[in-house]
Q: What sequence folds into this?
């Protein structure tokens, strides 16, 4: 027997969620065969098998969170498992042989006999009763106690997690479902469910456990929204000069095989503004009640992945040339979409830029990427009629929305920040003034 | 065919008022159902009127009688001048016990507003039952039906029961004259208890077992104590007896039971039956027709009232909309011999055969203070546990009150208790339960009141 514990996955991560087991008990694995996908803060990591052998037991099931050092899986190594391993001394708590029932109680129905190899799940009669009532296979319930006993609470929390899959009808004995139309009206809820399912097309709401990336996004958003008093300042900026600049640089960049978009330009224009208004590149230490001014400029870029929002981080953006920003960003966004980024590439941003225009819609109010103190959303560049010196003219307009932590930043500061940024966007050549 | 009979619509119809039927009726009534209970006799069934209760009552009476003649009394300083018994009075006392219990059941049935109809019922179709009884022929249309018609003593081919020379166990308990000699064919607990009863009353008893072993499945060391007890009572035990050669009379045939389903007209419903004629059910006690349930002996399973009573509750609860099943892990079994034997779960042999890595414990009653103070130290306690995790797998108890102690082991197994659990709790001293403590500690290698081997 060999146990495999959740290793330290770096960056001080204390726990990880089991996204998916690619193996099941009884499978025989090769050394280094990928057996498991776990998700840390925002990265999905594939874990290879540390041994060649047979899987005896999986301790932490899909969707559960494991702590570093917790046993995830138990192997019977190949040297001892040649004949099914029944003679291998086992440290596991489950029985390796027949449930008592199969020998002691001859059932009148041969079809319902427990197979002789079925393991007994340690559970008190009341727990077994509840499991049957809820249609739960006790073998699938992971005990929360190290003694391996399944409790009433374990069954209930299993149900909570797995409500989505239609467990109830699937595991009921075959005979229950015949002649449903004849059940009297005084039936308890569980039986009513059966009835509806058979008389009309099932119209049950689907419930899915909140897990994986979605769960993390939800937790992150909740934390941000609960902790930070959000306020949002809006403005619009004439993007004419920016568009011209991009048009000029784009063919030059293409010669170096780089596709120049607006975001790298906006990041380049954002850096001097952040330097000028350091409170926007800061965070609040809630315990010590101190403001931490960050001297590095790691810009988070909100990106849509198939599984949900990810914020890859462009580290030390202030030290990068426009070309470097552009190609790094391309790598990060591609990696985010494929979920191949490592943890450092997904954490540690000091300010976040959100190109809501790329998601469709003209603008939106962004939620601050906690523990940052501000986030800037740039909307879609659209031709609009604006009044300039008493005349209506058509200009490419870009909406801006700056959400800020009102504990640290006042509306006036937000307004000043936006005005300064707007100045840079409308006159991007200002960058030349401070260029080294 | 009755012309112009009126159909009475009922909610839940229970056929048979034995320990299965009346319990099902009461539980269904508790859950708000309107229940009609059909039986040709008094509520309580075979168990109360002809089987378990009369047998245990007579066993107690005969044990008291026999004890007065034992040498142990003299050693306690009690000298008995003359003791005799009167079989008719003993029967009357037994009947008093039965009547009292039957009256209790009748009150429970009435108190739960269950309607009791005397008669014999059979199926007309999957919704209707005809009942022929003292009030003529009645026709009931039901929403749900629970079949609890029990079982009859299984006959031996060539020997038909006449109630005098060839007897069922029930008939043996009702004989009016105690015979001088009695032969009993069988190897189950009923055969052993009947042999014990009559031998205690001075009857020359022959126990003829067609099999090689009495009480198959019981640990052999425990069985030796039971055999010794039978011998001490003068019972002549023969095993491997050819049934066709048995000429002794009177003879009691205890060869198990046959489900009483033949007169139910199950074919009118299309109910599936299993090989022995029992009604096929799932773990929720539903037959192949889901609004008809069957419980207890008529399902062809092991004929024990404990099983029927639990299945009764399952059936009543399922038809009232609950999702429950009959799924005990173990089944306690008691044999009222001298010494008394009780078992639950696996024996060591069965557990090993089932693939468990086992550890066993054994403690003789002779080392238990309470057994000595009872003047009854003939016995042993045996426990079997899973060596991998210490969980209890089985227990065999021999000695006084073994049948009352066995439920501790049953509870421990059902709860998944370990030897350590058993050794951590307190046992009143001096008590027979302490044998379980000592056995558990023995299995853990640290029994205090017994020296370790070697």
A:
């Amino acid at each position: 027997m060999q146990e495999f514990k959740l290793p330290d996955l770096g960056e001080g991560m204390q726990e990880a969620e089991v996204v998916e087991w690619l193996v099941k008990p009884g499978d025989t694995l090769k050394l280094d065969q990928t057996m498991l996908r776990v998700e840390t803060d925002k990265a999905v990591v594939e874990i290879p098998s540390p041994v060649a052998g047979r899987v005896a037991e999986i301790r932490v099931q899909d969707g559960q969170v494991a702590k570093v050092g917790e046993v995830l899986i138990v192997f019977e190594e190949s040297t001892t498992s040649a004949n099914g391993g029944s003679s291998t001394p086992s440290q596991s708590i489950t029985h390796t042989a027949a449930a008592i029932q199969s020998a002691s109680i001859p059932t009148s129905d041969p079809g319902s006999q427990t197979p002789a190899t079925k393991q007994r799940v340690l559970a008190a009669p009341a727990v077994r009763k509840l499991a049957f009532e809820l249609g739960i296979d006790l073998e699938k319930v992971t005990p929360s106690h190290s003694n391996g006993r399944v409790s009433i609470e374990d069954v209930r929390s299993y149900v909570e997690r797995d409500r989505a899959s239609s467990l109830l009808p699937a595991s009921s004995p075959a005979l229950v479902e015949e002649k449903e139309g004849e059940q009297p009206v005084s039936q308890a809820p569980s039986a009513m469910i059966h009835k509806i399912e058979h008389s009309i097309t099932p119209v049950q709401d689907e419930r899915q456990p909140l897990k994986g990336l979605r769960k993390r996004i939800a937790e992150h958003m909740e934390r941000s929204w609960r902790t930070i008093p959000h306020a949002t300042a809006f403005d619009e900026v004439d993007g004419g000069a920016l568009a011209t600049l991009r048009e000029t640089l784009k063919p030059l960049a293409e010669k170096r095989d780089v596709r120049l978009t607006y975001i790298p330009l906006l990041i380049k224009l954002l850096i001097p503004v952040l330097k000028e208004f350091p409170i926007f590149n800061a965070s609040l230490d809630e315990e010590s009640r101190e403001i931490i001014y960050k001297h590095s400029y790691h810009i988070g870029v909100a990106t849509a992945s198939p599984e949900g929002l990810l914020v890859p981080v462009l580290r030390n953006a202030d030290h990068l040339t426009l070309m470097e920003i552009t190609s790094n960003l391309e790598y990060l966004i591609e990696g985010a979409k494929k979920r191949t980024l490592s943890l450092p590439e997904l954490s540690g941003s000091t300010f976040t830029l959100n190109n809501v225009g790329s998601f469709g819609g003209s603008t939106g109010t962004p939620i601050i990427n906690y523990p940052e103190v501000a986030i800037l959303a740039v909307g879609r560049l659209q031709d609009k009629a604006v009044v300039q010196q008493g005349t209506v003219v058509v200009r490419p307009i870009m909406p801006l929305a700056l959400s800020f932590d009102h504990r640290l930043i006042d509306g006036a500061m937000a307004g000043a920040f936006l005005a300064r940024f707007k100045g840079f966007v409308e006159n991007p050549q200002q960058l030349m003034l401070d260029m080294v | 065919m009755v012309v112009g009979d009126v159909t009475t619509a009922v909610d839940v119809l229970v056929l048979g008022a034995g320990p299965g039927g009346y319990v099902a009726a009461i539980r269904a009534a508790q859950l708000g159902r309107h229940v009609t209970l059909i039986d040709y006799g008094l509520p309580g069934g075979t168990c109360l009127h002809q089987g378990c209760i009369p047998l245990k009552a007579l066993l107690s009476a005969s044990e008291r009688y026999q004890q007065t003649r034992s040498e142990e009394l003299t050693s306690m300083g009690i000298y008995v001048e003359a003791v005799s018994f009167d079989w008719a009075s003993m029967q009357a006392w037994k009947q008093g016990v039965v009547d009292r219990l039957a009256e209790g059941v009748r009150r429970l049935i009435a108190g739960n507003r269950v309607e009791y109809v005397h008669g014999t019922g059979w199926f007309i179709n999957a919704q209707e039952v005809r009942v022929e009884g003292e009030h003529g022929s009645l026709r009931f249309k039901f929403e749900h039906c629970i079949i609890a018609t029990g079982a009859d003593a299984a006959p031996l081919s060539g020997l038909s029961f006449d109630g005098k020379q060839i007897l069922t166990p029930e008939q043996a308990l009702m004989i009016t004259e105690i015979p001088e000699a009695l032969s009993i064919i069988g190897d189950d607990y009923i055969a052993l208890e009947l042999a014990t009863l009559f031998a205690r009353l001075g009857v020359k008893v022959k126990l003829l077992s067609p099999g090689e072993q009495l009480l198959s499945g019981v640990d052999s060391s425990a069985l030796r104590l039971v055999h010794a007890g039978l011998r001490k009572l003068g019972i002549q035990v023969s095993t491997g007896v050819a049934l066709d050669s048995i000429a002794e009379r009177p003879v009691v045939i205890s060869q198990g039971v046959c489900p009483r389903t033949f007169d139910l007209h199950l074919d009118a419903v299309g109910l599936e039956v299993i090989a022995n004629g029992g009604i096929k059910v799932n773990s929720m006690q539903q037959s192949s027709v889901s609004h008809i349930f069957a419980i207890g002996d008529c399902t062809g399973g092991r004929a024990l009232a404990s099983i029927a009573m639990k299945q009764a509750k399952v059936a009543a609860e399922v038809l009232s909309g609950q999702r429950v099943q009959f799924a005990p892990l173990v089944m306690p079994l008691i044999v009222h011999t001298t010494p008394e034997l009780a078992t639950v779960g696996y024996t060591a042999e069965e557990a090993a055969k089932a693939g468990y890595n086992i550890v066993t414990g054994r403690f003789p009653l002779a080392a238990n203070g309470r057994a000595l103070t009872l003047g009854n130290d003939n016995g042993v306690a045996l426990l079997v546990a899973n060596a991998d995790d210490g969980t209890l797998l089985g227990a065999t108890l021999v000695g006084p009150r073994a049948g009352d102690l066995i439920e501790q082991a049953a509870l421990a197994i059902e709860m998944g208790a370990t030897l350590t659990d058993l050794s951590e709790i307190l046992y009143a001293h001096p008590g027979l339960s302490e044998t379980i403590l000592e056995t558990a500690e023995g299995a853990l290698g640290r029994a205090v009141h017994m020296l370790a081997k070697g």
